[in-house]
Design brief:
Order of helices and strands: EHEEHHHH
Mean pLDDT: 87
Radius of gyration: 21 Å
Strand content: 15-25%
Number of helices: 5
Strand order of the largest sheet: 1-2-3
Largest sheet: 3 strands, antiparallel
Number of strands: 3
Distance between the termini: 51 Å
Number of domains: 2
Helix content: 40-55%
Structural class: alpha+beta
Length: 147
Amino acid sequence: MARWRIQTKGVTPEEAGLCGCWQFVAVWRERKELRQGKVIEESEEYSFYATSAAPGQYTAQQLLQATRDHWSASENGAHYRRDVSLGEDACRIGQRTGAQVMATLRNLVLGLFELQKHRGQTKAQTFPEWRRRLTDTQKLQLIIGKS
């Protein structure tokens, strides 16, 4: 069982301090997991968003769906691949610069995979499969731009 409530506040980009921002959106979500009619787990969450959508442009339901779609794409797309395939959450680099360098390298590797898929230069359907198929020579050629 889930309930939600959404509130919006129209602003100007100057008021928001964000170029192109025309409203702030606050979403409250309450979720209760039921088993045989009994609550076994419940959670409550508040999320805040800034959007370029004009006030009144979308209904509350449409704005909520947009936030769901955004997070679904993030969690099931890039984050999943970065964490599961590249072990990002397990990385224990403590310095900000090192963490930024590693994030950049992860983005580079994922981008190279997507580019090869787009160009039809790989038969691999998934990122882990692509990584396993590449030889060390092929990896170096990708990095220096010879594909």
